[in-house]
Amino acid sequence: MEVNVPDLRIAQPNIPPESSLPPGKRAADAAPSAIRKFLLSRGNSAYTDLSFQYLMALCGFSIFGIVLLIFVELVGRSQMAWDQFHFEFFYKVYTDATTNTVLYWDPVNSHFSGLPFIYGTLVSSFLALLLAVPLAIGVAVFLTEMCPELLRGPLAFLTELLAAIPSIVYGLWAMYALVPLLREHVNPFLISALGWTGLFSDDNPTGLGFVAAGLILAVMILPIISSLTREVMTAVPHSQREAVLAIGATRWEMIRMGVLRNARIGIVGAIILGLGRALGETMAVTMVIGNSPEIHRSLLSNGSSMAAVIANEFAEATSDMHRSALMEIGLALFIVTIIVNALARLLVWAVTRGAPAQTH
Amino acid sequence: MRTEYKLRSRFRAFTDHAATAIAVLSTIVVVTPLIAIFIYLLIRGFGSLNVAFFTKVPAPVGEIGGGMANAIVGSAVLLGLASLIGVPIGIGAGIYLAEFGRGTRMAYAIRFTADVLNGVPSIVMGLAAFSLVVIPQKHFSAFAGGVALGIMMIPTICRSSEEMLLMVPHAVREAALGLGVPNWRAVLSITVKTASPGIITGCMLAFARVAGETAPLLFTALGNQFWSTSLNEPIAALPLQIYVYALSPYDDWHRLAWAGALVLIVLIVLAVSLVRYVTSRGVLKGTS
C-alpha cells in the first residue's frame, strides 16, 4: 500500500555526503582546537578537576607556608636586637652598676641577655625528663606486656585524658596543690637529705622554683612519652617475642631482649619528643617557676624559662628593643623545638615504618 | 655446674618478678596523682560553680559574685573564628595528602612538617600572629587571637583527616569514578562524605586542644573585663581569664578560676570521650 508522504524538506544546498569524501578531507577529521583536544582526552570536567586539585595542593602547601610565615615574621621583628647584640645575646653577663651584682635581663637600661632563660629551660626540661622517662617506660611496659585485658582500655583512656588536659589547668593545680606540698614537706626533706650536694639550699622558702617546674613538667610529658613508647612497642613484630620465648627466656627477658631492644630507637624518639614538649611549655611553668631572671646553683631557687619570660613580659613590654629581644628569644625557641621535634619524628618513624597511627 | 644453674635460674626468676613489680609500681605512681588531680579539681570546682558563673560578667575587685560569662562567649567567638580559618584549610590539606599526593615525596614532606608544627610551642604561634596582625592594626583584637588559634588547628586537622580518608576503601572511589562522576565530585561527595564522622571527630579533637590554649592569646586577644563580641577589640577567653584570676591575690577570683577550670575540663573530657566513641564504631558504619 502506498502512502503519499509529502516531501517537506527545505531545499538543501548540494553538499556531498561526508562519507563520500576521501578520509583526511572530512570535517570530523579537521585538526581539533587545543581546548577540544584537552576536553576530549580528559572528559568534560577537566577544568573543574584540575582547579580542584590545585586548590587542594594549595591547602597542602599552606603547611609549608605557615612554617615560613612564622620564621619570616620572627626574624624580621628580632632584627633590632640581633643588630645590637649578635651572638652575645645568648651568653653575655652584665654587672649592675650600683650593687655590683651579676645582672642578665634589665629592660630599663636595655641590657638583654638570654642566658638565665636558656639555663632555666634546660634545667626544668632535663629535671622533667629525669623524673618522667623511667615512669613512662614502666607504664608503657606494663600496659603493653603485663596488663590484663580488662584494665588496658580504662588505663589507656586515662593516659590519653592526661594528655588532653590544658596546661593552664595543670598550672592551677600546681600552684595551689603542688607548691604548698613542696613548701611544707618535700623541700625541707630535700634540703636535709640532699643538701650536701650543693644543689639544694634553703634560700627560697616559697616552694616555687625549678623543682616545682620540673615536677609539673614531668606530669605533663609523661603521657606523651608513654603512649609513643606503647606505639613503638606494639610495632615490634610478634615473631621477635616468640623467638626469644622459644629459647627459654622469662617474661622480663623477653621484654628486654625481644621488644625493648628492637624499639630502642623509637623509645629514644619518644623521649626526645617529650623533651620538645617540655622545652616549649609555657603556662604551667610560668605559674610555678618563680620568674626571676637569675642563675643560681640550687634547684630550689627561683628562675625563669624562655617561654615564661615571653608570656610574662611581652604584653607589657615598653620599648621596641625589649619587644625585639623577646622576639629573638621566641625565634630561638622556635628553631630549637623544630630541630628537636624533627629529630624525634624521624626516630619514631624509623621504627614504625612510616607515619604512626596517632596524631600526637 | 648444677648449683650454678640453679643459682642462675633463681636470679632470673627474681629479676622477672622484680621487673613486674617495678612496672606495676610505676603505673600506680602515675595513675594515683592523676586521679588525685581530677578529684581535687572536681571538689574545688564544684564548690565554686553556680548559675551566676554562666550569666554575669566579672564583678569589681573586692566584691563577691560575678562570673565568667564574657569569657565563655569570648572563647566561643575566638574558637568560631579559628575553626573558620583552620577547618577548611586543614581538611583541604588532608584531601591533598590522601587523594592527590598519595605516595609522593611531597606528601611525605607535608606530613612531616605538619607533625613538626604540632610540636611548636603555642606561644611562638602567638608571637607570629602578633607580628602579622596586631602590629599592622596597631591594636589588640579578637581577630588576631582567632588567627593564632586557627593556624594552630591546621596541622592537627590535616593529619587526622588524612588518616580518616586513607581508611575509605578503594572500592567506594572506584565505583563512583566508574559511574562517570567527575573526580572532584567523587572526592567531595563520596570519599569525604564516607569519612565524615572521622573527619568531624578529628576537628573536634583539634577544637578541644585549642580551646584550652592560653599562651597565644596573652598578647593577641589580650583579654577583656567587659562584655565584648566585636572582632576588632580585645576579647576575654576562658583560659586567659583563669590565668589572670589564678595569679591575683583575691580569694573570690581564685574561686572563679577553679570553676572555670572545671568547665574547661568537662568540655575536654566530653570531646575526648565522644571522639573515642565515634572512632570505635568504624569509618563506614556512621554514614548509613
The CATH top-level class label of the largest domain in chain B: Mainly Alpha
Structural shape of chain B:
flat
- Under the CATH scheme, the architecture of the largest domain in chain A is Orthogonal Bundle
Mean pLDDT of chain A: 86
Major sheet attributes of chain A:
2 strands, antiparallel
Derived from helix and strand composition plus strand pairing, the structural class of chain A reads mainly alpha
Strand segment tally of chain B: 0
Instruction: Quote the CATH topology of the largest domain in chain B.
Output: MetI-like fold
Report how far the terminal alpha carbons of chain A are from each other.
Answer: 86 Å
Mean pLDDT of chain B: 87
Number of strands of chain A: 4
Q: What's the shape of chain A? A: elongated
Share of residues in helices of chain B: over 70%
The CATH superfamily title of the largest domain in chain B:
MetI-like
* The CATH homology group name of the largest domain in chain A: MetI-like
Which pair of chains has the greatest number of interface residues, and how are they split between the two chains? A-B, 90 and 100 residues
Low-confidence stretches of chain A: 355-360
CATH class of the largest domain in chain A: Mainly Alpha
**CA-to-CA gap between the ends of chain B?**
69 Å
What does this structure look like?
The complex is a heterodimer of chains A (360) and B (288). Chain A is mostly helical. Chain A has helices at residues 34-42, 46-77, 79-85, 115-146, 149-164, 167-194, 210-235, 238-246, 251-280, 283-288, 306-313, 320-352, and strands at 94-95, 102-103, 105-106, 111-112. In chain A, strand 1 and strand 2 (102-103) form a beta hairpin. In chain A, helix 3 packs across helix 12. The longest helix of chain A has 33 residues, at 320-352. In chain B, helix 10 runs antiparallel to helix 11 (251-280). With 288 residues, chain B is mainly α. Chain B contains 11 helices and no strands.
